Amino acid sequence: MSALPALLSDATALAGATGFVYTFTLLSVALVSVASRSPARRRDARETLAILVWRRPKP
């Protein structure tokens, strides 16, 4: 039973790191979709952003 707190702490750290990386990725793609000079690059970035934030439709 003493290993459970350590395991939960590791899982929390991993979840936090994953959330940070995902947020950084979203912000980077959003910045490219707004600031890029090339229309093709902006379109690609917007499509990538749509994929990253895709949500299931409500029933």
Mean pLDDT: 85
Main pleated-sheet profile:
none
Q: How many H/I helices?
A: 2
Rough shape? elongated
Structural class: mainly alpha
Number of domains: 1
Strand content: under 5%
Distance between the termini: 41 Å
Q: Uncertain regions: pLDDT < 50 for 5+ in a row?
A: none
Query: What's the order of the H and E elements?
Result: HH
Radius of gyration: 17 Å
Structure, explained:
The protein has 59 residues and is mainly alpha-helical. It has one domain. Helices cover 80% and strands 0% of the residues. The chain starts with a helix and ends in a 7-residue tail after the last helix. The model has no long low-confidence stretch (mean pLDDT 85).
Helix and strand arrangement:
Elements: H1 3-35, H2 39-52
Key terms for this structure?
mainly alpha, 2 helices, 59 residues
In short:
The protein has 59 residues and is an all-alpha fold. Helices cover 80% and strands 0% of the residues.
